[in-house]
Design a protein that fits this description.
Blueprint: E1 8-11, E2 18-27, H1 31-38, E3 48-53, E4 59-68, E5 78-86, H2 88-102, E6 108-109, H3 114-121, H4 127-138, H5 142-152, H6 155-175, H7 184-190, H8 193-219, E7 221-226, H9 233-241, E8 259-265, E9 268-274, H10 284-297, E10 302-308, H11 315-330, E11 336-342, E12 359-360, H12 369-380, H13 394-412, H14 421-439, H15 445-452
């Protein structure tokens, strides 16, 4: 997929019935294909109302065709866009006819993400913008849509490129002085290298903080509700979701499998998983559900350990302590456990403390739920500001973190008593390389293929 130059075709609209369905063709030169389809060469960038016919001359569909001539197109190649009626079977007939008539030119069905990949390879967009296209399609909230749109317009890439340029200018100064080791200290002072490097470090830290917020907007928060049977996990899920998505009964072990619900909390996507009560059981079905509960815990961003107020000080409370230790052992890195005591409606108002280290709620009445929501966002690392947010991926965070480590090392080699311009320059280069991987300037083909294979077909 990385190197083939043949024309490609795919349905660009979602599966199912619709008023309009779009088929897109992209390739080095589509004039012969367009003439084979409609017996005429289409004027560029004009909408043509035409009829596509089968091999016997019978009409398949009356459609609108637009021919975009390279390089003025999304992919940077010739692009032929066919706007058909949106019946699934009709679109398949149009696709089949296009493949028949375009076969002599090598027309083939596109791989996932191949249109966007060609746009990237033809320098129409960089890799961060390409990823933003997929993120825009998959956005789960209004804030995520706006953040992905900003990334697609180049806001994130501009920040990265500006930082790379600053590092480049600093590298030029450093490397031009490497042949004069006796002037290292004088160079660092005259060029204000330390001050400039500090500014780079501050800007990089701001980018990292923004990217962390962007990853939360993109992926949401994986929140797992755990606890002993019948402590109110399903009731809490229903309260957070605002509807009855889980069955609630007084019978312990009612939930035998994971129940997942996605909601938006202050614009942040949240994927809540209600797990089967964690206990030892001889019930084969329940045991399978409990094992899936542990699987969910191992992938969580935040775990809420729900406890029953009625069990405080009882032998069951000791078992809850053992359960917490086991949960802590299974948690992924940086995942926290928030302990919450349910059924606060059984307490007097004077006893109910929602501001201290112990969080009391009532899943039944909603008491303390608003505070719990704020606490969830706080622990997950959400800063609360959506203005100017961009969408970021785990890959972007990794690159920014690695770049920050090399900038930190470069600062160490610029301190008095430990000055080494050779190592200073090398750490700057490594930091620059990691930042360049975000926009795709320095990325291996196998990783590119993996990134674009996650796109939908037709994009």
């Amino acid at each position: 997929m990385m190197t083939r130059k043949v024309p490609i075709i795919a349905i660009a609209t979602a599966p199912g019935r619709a008023g309009v369905g779009v088929i897109r063709i992209s390739g080095p030169d589509l004039s012969r294909i367009s003439k084979a389809l409609f017996q005429k060469v289409l004027r560029p960038r004009e909408a043509h109302l035409l009829t596509l016919r089968d091999a016997d001359g019978a009409a398949i569909d009356q459609l609108i065709a637009i021919h975009f001539i390279a390089p003025a197109s999304f992919t940077g190649e010739d692009v032929l866009e066919l706007q058909c009626h949106g019946g699934p079977q009709l679109l398949e007939l149009v696709m089949r006819r296009c493949l028949e008539l375009g076969g002599s030119d090598g027309l083939v069905i596109a791989e996932p993400g191949e249109f966007t990949l060609r746009a990237y390879l033809n320098d129409k967009i960089d890799l961060a913008q390409a990823e933003a296209i997929a993120d825009l399609i998959d956005a789960q909230s209004e804030a995520a849509v706006r953040g992905a749109a900003r990334s697609l317009q180049g806001a994130f890439s501009d920040d990265i490129n500006s930082l790379i340029e600053e590092i480049t200018q600093l590298r030029i100064l450093v490397e031009s002085t490497l042949d004069f080791p006796e002037e290292e200290i004088e160079f660092l002072e005259n060029a204000q290298a330390r001050e400039r490097l500090k500014k780079v470090s501050v800007r990089l830290q701001l980018l990292r903080e923004g990217a962390k917020q962007g990853k939360i907007l993109r992926d949401g928060i994986q929140l797992v509700l755990v606890g002993a049977p019948n402590v109110g996990k399903s009731s809490l899920l229903n309260r957070l979701a605002g509807e009855d998505v889980a069955i609630v009964t007084p019978i312990a072990g009612t939930t035998r499998d994971r129940v997942k619900e996605s909601i938006s909390l202050d614009g942040v996507p949240m994927h809540i998983i209600d797990t089967a009560g964690l206990r030892d059981t001889d019930d084969v079905v329940e045991a399978k559900g409990i094992e899936r509960s542990w699987d969910a815990i191992r992938l969580a961003d935040l775990v809420i350990l729900l406890k029953d107020f009625n069990l405080e000080g009882s032998p069951e409370a000791v078992e809850e302590g053992l359960l917490k230790n086991k949960i802590l052992f299974e948690l992924p890195p940086k995942c926290e456990v928030l302990e919450v005591i349910n059924k606060s409606d059984l307490l007097s108002d004077g006893e109910c403390n929602v501001e201290g280290s112990t969080l009391f709620i009532s899943a039944k009445t909603g008491q303390g739920i608003d505070f719990l929501k704020k606490k969830i966002l706080e622990i997950a690392g959400w800063g609360g500001s959506q203005e100017g947010a961009i969408i970021a991926r785990r890959r972007h965070l990794d690159c920014l973190d690695r770049a920050a480590k090399h900038i930190e090392k470069s600062q160490q080699f610029a301190t008095n008593g430990n000055i080494s311009l050779d190592l200073f320059a090398e750490e700057l280069r490594l930091a620059q390389d990691h930042l360049g991987q975000i926009t795709g300037k320095l990325l291996p083909d196998d990783l590119l293929g993996k990134i674009f294979s996650q796109f939908c077909i037709g994009k």
